[in-house]
Predict the structure.
Amino acid sequence: DAKTTQPNSMESNEEEPVHLPCNHSTISGTDYIHWYRQLPSQGPEYVIHGLTSNVNNRMASLAIAEDRKSSTLILHRATLRDAAVYYCIRSQGGSEKLVFGKGTKLTVNP
Amino acid sequence: DTGVSQNPRHKITKRGQNVTFRCDPISEHNRLYWYRQTLGQGPEFLTYFQNEAQLEKSRLLSDRFSAERPKGSFSTLEIQRTEQGDSAMYLCASSLGASGTNNEQFFGPGTRLTVL
């Protein structure tokens, strides 16, 4: 299983932007990049996904490097409710399963 | 609430006992997944169903584990002869199963199993 590489933890201040990096250097052309997050005592929830182009939704933006070997999840204005573990997942062509790593634990300071 | 539900939320059992967990997916979702999560780790895939067919199983799913989805709606995960190493959070997720780019999975709150 090809997991991605993320920092173990990051800190941010409330109402500031947060950039969460992810490396997926062995990604193949048909693999999507997904981000999920897990708040304390809850199941994971979908954040965003993309293939090649940058993506925006109501929760976040996803910036994908031109060579697709890395990506960055951007939270434009962090709130205390964004404190969670963020997982960057590379879906492997044709497989339905999500292969989670340890993720990045984001702490948001008031 | 129309999300994924799991029962029970907590289960404490003695080593060697059998346990069964239930997952009710979002009603129109035809794909259902089981994951296991231990403390400090991300969830690990166990198995998934499309309707009633079990299409993929992880090598983590030993012969003591069995999952069913008899009518393509709810699913059960049974663990026979539980071991202390089975203690974990068991997560269920479902998805619409639409073809195309994304198959967003919606997770339930999990069943926390403690084996004494």
Q: What stands out?
A: Chain B is about 0% helix and 50% strand. Chain B has a mean pLDDT of 92. The CA atoms of residues 31 and 50 of chain B lie 5 Å apart.
